[in-house]
Fold this protein.
Amino acid sequence: MSFADSDPRRAAAYSNAGFGCLLAGEHREAENFLQNAAAHWRLAERRVEVAEVPLAGAGTAFHLSLASRHGETLTRIRRDKYIGICRGAAAITNAVARRLVQSHNISELNGADVQEDITALESAFGIDCAEALLLKHESSESNATLPSDELRFLHDRWPAVARQTRSEMRPFVDAAYLTAGLHRTD
C-alpha cells in the first residue's frame, strides 16, 4: 500500500480486506488483515496526537478572538474528536474480529468488549449511529428486528460529513466512515 503506516486509510483498507476475507471464508487471511487493521488504528490515533489540527476558519470577530485566546484548548478538543473517530472505526474492526472468533474457532484477536465498542461508536458518531445500534442488538437476547429503513449508517452520512471537514483531516473521516463490517443485512 502507498499510505504511511499511521495513515488511517491503511487501517480501513486492512479492516475491509479482513471483512472481505471473512465473507469469502478465508479465515486465516481475515485474521491477519484484522490484526494489522487493529495495529494501524492505534498508529492512526498516535498520528492525531501529534498532528497539526487546523481550527475551523469561522469568520466572525468573536470566533477569531476565541481562537486566539484559547487556541490550545480548541486544538485539544478537535484532536480528541479525531482520536474518537479512529476509536469508533477501530470498534467496527473489533466487531468483525469478534464475528471471526465466534464463528470459526480463531484465537481471540483483541481484548475490546462489545460495550467498549458501542461506547466508542456512540462517542465518535452519535447515539443514533446505526453501527452502534447493530452491536447493541447483536449483543442482546432480543429477537426483535431493527427497522433498517430508519438506520443511518456511516457510509450514508459520509458525504455530508466529508464536505464539512478540512482537507488536512479528511483521511481520518474518510477512513472511519468507509470502514465496512457493520451494515444493512437486507
Residues 71-104 form the longest helix (34 residues). The chain has one domain: 8-54+82-177. The two ends are 32 Å apart (CA to CA). Residues 8-54+82-177 form one domain.
